[in-house]
Amino acid sequence: MPKRTDTTPIAVDGLTKKYGSVTAVDQLSFTVRPGRITGFLGPNGAGKTTTLRMTLGLVTPSAGRATIHGHIYRQLANPTSVVGAVLDDVGAHDSRSGRHHLRQLCAAARIPASRVDDVLAEVDLTQAADRDYGTYSRGMRQRLSLAQALLGDPEVLIMDEPTNGLDPSGIRWILDALREFADQGRTVLISTHVIAEIQSLLEDVIIINRGTLVAQGTVAQVCGSESGTGQVSAHASDPAGLLAAARAKGLSATMSGGAVLFSDGGIEQVSALAAQERITLREVSSLQHSLEAAFLNLTRQEGK
Length: 304
Ligand SMILES: Nc1ncnc2c1ncn2[C@@H]1O[C@H](COP(=O)(O)OP(=O)(O)OP(=O)(O)O)[C@@H](O)[C@H]1O
Prior knowledge:
By secondary structure, the chain is α/β, with parallel strands linked by helices.
């Protein structure tokens, strides 16, 4: 059953981590909305893993804090029932079975051992449960990792690069499992730098670069379709005149298939320019960037 509380599932406030002269995360603030699947996106080295590890109490922040349902991780009385995490390494022993690993975790977290069979079934790992972890494929390891995260029946699931190294069917499986989890009203935060693989799943996105926030919102907002800015295509009575007028105003525009393509701006701005120049617009439309294009734009600009 879905579980909800009144507080924000994940709130990051002024979070900073310095490693000597390297600032891995720099005064980062964002919130994750309940019951949504949020992508935590950033290029290699942007600070995603460090942020998630601080959120999960595995790395101590230099400044700021991250809270899960209003509490820092270490203050959670019963953390496994609040948040489950799928990180790089499940910490299972090669010569122990997946079932043995989960049983040990149950004992340590005072979770009833009966949960082991439940989560093994949830991640389709029952048949391989008694095989040694060392014989598991990458996909099976990822399923065990998810099973581990689900042991405490948490409200929030945090996953660091969950599709890393998986084949297409493994990726499909993970995406379906996460969709199901979110459909129960739970909150999912997924970090990745491979946007194309998980784009279809995401509702909200947080994009970071060099440890700082560069965008946050729904996928549509970040792709430019709701913010009023982004690429605009205009079919005009005098396309060459419109292009010249745009450039004279310092707007970035090109000719594309008979239309004038404005690389940034908004429909209102383009309409006003055409009216000023007495050029009739036959059609004007806002082109939604793909999330991947928006990501590349945002992180490229910020990276300079
Ligand atoms: N323990 C550490 N000691 C020193 N520097 C570190 C440490 N952990 C991370 N860093 C540095 O902090 C920065 C952010 O790393 P982080 O792993 O958080 O990025 P990321 O966004 O998860 O990258 P990736 O997508 O490659 O996993 C990098 O410059 C990294 O080299």
